[in-house]
Every structure is written in C-alpha cells, then in structure tokens.
C-alpha cells in the first residue's frame, strides 16, 4: 500500500509535466510570415505590392526585381533583398518524387460528357494545367468550353467557372441546354459561371489576373477558367513580322500568369486557339495553330479538333506529359458532348 501511494503521485507529476511541455511547444510555433514582415517594407510599400497582386510571400519569391521596381519604385538592391528573404522564408527547393505524387492526389479531372474524349486526356481535363484545343471554325472548341463550365459543377456544387469571352461566343441559352442534359439546376449553373467580355489583349490579360481576386477576396471556389479564344485579339492587334516578337512576348506572359494561377489554386485552364493554313505544305493537313512554339510549350495538353463524317467531330491528342498520341470521335447535340458509339 505504501508503495502504491508513493508511485501514484510520481505518475501524476510526470503527466502534469508532459501537459505543461505541450502547450509551450504550440506557443513557440513560428507564425506564418506576411509581406509586412519583410525587411524594408512599410505600410505604404506593402499596399502598393498588394494592389498589383503581390499579396503573399510566394508571389514575391517568384517575381523578378524589375517587376517589384515597376510596382513600387524601390531600388534594385532592396527588390533583390526582398525576393531573397521571401525565398528563404518559404524554404523553396527540391522535393522527392513520392512527395510530388502525393501532392498530385489533389488534382481533379473535369469531364466533357464524352467518355472517349475524357479518356483521350487521361480521364478528364486536369486541374492545375492548361489544356489547349485548336481547330477550324465549327470544330467544337467553344462547345467543349460550355460543357466543361457546366460539368465542373457536377463535381462540386459550389464550383465556379470563369469564362473570358474574346469573340462573343458565350451563350447562356446553350448553358441551360447542357445543364438540363446533365440533370443540373440551370439557374444555379448560370449563377456559378462568371463571364467577362475582353475587348483587347490588355483587357484579356487583366481579366486573367483578376481571377485571383475572385478566389481571395470573394472566396469563390474557382475550378475552371475558359479563355475563348486565346489568340484572337493578339492576332488582330499585332500585324506583320515586325510586331511578331512583341506579340509572342506578351502572349507568353499571359500564359505564364494563367499557368501560375492554375497551379497555385488548383483549377483547370481551358483555352481555345485559332488556326491558319500553311501555304508551303503540299502533302498532309496544312492546318497549324496560331501562337507558334510559345503556346505549344505553355500548354500541358494540346488537342486538335476537326470535322468528321455525318456531323461528328474528331479530337486528336497532339501533346501530353503522360498520354500517347491518339484520337477519338464525338458529336455535339442539344444536351451536350456525346460519344459516337
């Protein structure tokens, strides 16, 4: 009995000490740093950075000194220092393959309605990536964009689709037809699609950057961003070989913004692209996508659409990081995208 009386207080004392240690460890946890914690950044500078989109350490860590200088007017030395501190705070570096595989478990796949077309790109259009569809007029590019805008809401009810319309091709009447075909509430589907008409390339790029405001400031669950079409304004505004370098540079910046936002917020970017005919090609299909290597390299998946027999459409996978080149048929009816069989 005496031994038990001695041991019980000892156990209680050990337990008490353990409990005292745990809260202490929680209190010592390093709080997440913000841009206000960066050396040399006052309230005025921080507001300038936030106003142009540099709202967190990651955005500063991946920026160039020139971008920070243009945004705030700070010196070159300070801009480089801010970027260095932001990178060291985030511990940016390499990660192992298994860690990347685990992170890719968050990737979602948006469906078109055609099982064959979904299978062509690995089960659906990936979030965190850019998928480009190019083809001649009437090949089904815009119809796929409408279908994705509807079907992304079948995965999550609060999913939001952002539609940047450059050619006045968005039709709410078509959305209603697709929503009925998918068995969804057409009014709710329309409310969850945010449409903006872009009137020039600068406006188009600004709208792409504004997507982050919808996520951060309005708290919307954006799962899809459609740009229909990607190159129409760039093609119209930059005419002749003398402006080609400027056009490609601007287009490259636009695509990199879309790619960064898609990866950061895990949404799918679907862009349509116009085509041209190569006059020097005598054999084979002379159809070529606008935008050259810039668009080709920036797109994760590339699909070439063309008209098939009896009103069908043919999709050919041109480029993918994991899927082989292949093609499939589909058709578009009043209720959505369907398989040919």
Could you give the topology of this structure?
Layout: H1 2-27, H2 43-51, H3 57-61, H4 65-72, H5 76-90, H6 97-103, E1 109-110, H7 115-120, E2 125-126, E3 130-135, H8 141-155, E4 159-165, H9 172-182, H10 186-191, E5 193-197, H11 201-216, E6 221-228, H12 232-237, H13 244-265, E7 268-273, E8 275-277, E9 287-289, H14 292-298, E10 301-307, E11 313-319, E12 326-333, E13 336-339
Parallel strand pairs: 3-7, 3-10, 4-5, 4-6, 6-7
Antiparallel strand pairs: 1-2, 8-9, 10-11, 11-12, 12-13
Helix pairs in contact: 4-5, 8-9, 11-13, 13-14
Protein model, in words:
This protein is of the alpha/beta class. Helices cover 47% and strands 20% of the residues. The chain has two domains: 35-90, DNA polymerase, domain 1 (Orthogonal Bundle); 102-339, P-loop containing nucleotide triphosphate hydrolases (Rossmann fold, 3-Layer(aba) Sandwich), CATH 3.40.50.300. The protein is built from 14 helices and 13 strands. The protein has a nine-stranded mixed beta sheet with strand order 5-4-6-7-3-10-11-12-13, sandwiched between helices. It has a two-stranded antiparallel ribbon with strand order 1-2. Strands 8-9 form a two-stranded antiparallel sheet. The protein starts with a helix and ends with a strand. The model is unreliable at 1-10 and 20-30 (pLDDT under 50).
Order of helices and strands: HHHHHHEHEEHEHHEHEHHEEEHEEEE
Q: Please count the helical segments.
A: 14
Helix-and-strand structural type? alpha/beta
Domain module tally: 2
Return the CATH topology of the largest domain.
Rossmann fold
Tell me the number of strands.
Answer: 13
Proper CATH architecture of the largest domain:
3-Layer(aba) Sandwich
Low confidence ranges: 1-10, 20-30
What is the oligomer described by this structure?
single chain
| Nearest-integer average pLDDT | 87
Instruction: Give the biggest beta sheet.
Output: 9 strands, mixed
The fraction of residues in strands falls at: 15-25%
Distance between the termini: 83 Å
CATH superfamily of the largest domain: P-loop containing nucleotide triphosphate hydrolases
The gyration radius over C-alpha positions equals: 25 Å
Major β-sheet strand ordering: 5-4-6-7-3-10-11-12-13
**Percent helix among the residues?**
40-55%
């Amino acid at each position: 009995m005496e031994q038990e009386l001695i041991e019980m207080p000892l156990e209680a004392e050990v337990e008490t000490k353990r409990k005292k240690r745990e809260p202490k460890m929680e209190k010592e946890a390093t709080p997440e740093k913000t841009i206000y914690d960066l050396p040399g950044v006052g309230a005025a500078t921080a507001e300038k950075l936030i106003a142009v989109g540099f709202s967190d350490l990651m955005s500063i860590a991946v920026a160039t000194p020139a971008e920070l200088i243009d945004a705030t007017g700070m010196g070159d030395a300070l801009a480089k220092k801010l970027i260095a501190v932001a990178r060291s705070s985030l511990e940016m570096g390499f990660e192992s393959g298994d860690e990347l595989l685990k992170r890719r478990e968050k990737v979602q796949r948006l469906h078109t309605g055609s099982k064959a077309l979904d299978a062509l790109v690995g089960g659906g259009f990936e979030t965190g990536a850019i998928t480009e569809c190019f083809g001649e007029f009437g090949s089904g590019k815009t119809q796929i964009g409408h279908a994705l805008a509807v079907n992304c809401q079948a995965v999550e009810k609060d999913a939001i689709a952002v539609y940047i319309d450059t050619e006045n091709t968005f039709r709410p009447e078509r959305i209603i037809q697709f929503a009925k075909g998918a068995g969804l509430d057409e009014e709710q589907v329309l409310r969850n699609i945010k449409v903006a008409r872009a009137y020039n390339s600068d406006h188009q790029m600004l709208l792409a950057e504004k997507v982050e405001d919808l996520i951060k400031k309005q708290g919307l669950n954006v799962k899809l961003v459609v740009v229909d079409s990607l190159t129409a304004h760039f093609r119209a505004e930059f005419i002749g070989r003398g402006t080609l370098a400027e056009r490609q540079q601007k287009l490259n910046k636009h695509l990199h913004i879309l790619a960064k936002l898609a990866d950061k917020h895990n949404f799918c970017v679907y862009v349509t692209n116009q085509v041209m005919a190569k006059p020097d090609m005598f054999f084979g299909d002379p159809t070529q996508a606008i935008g050259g290597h810039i668009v080709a390299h920036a797109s994760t998946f590339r699909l070439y659409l063309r008209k098939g027999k009896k009103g069908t459409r043919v999709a050919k996978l041109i480029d993918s990081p994991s899927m082989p080149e292949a093609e499939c048929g589909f058709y578009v009816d009043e209720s959505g995208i369907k398989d040919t069989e």
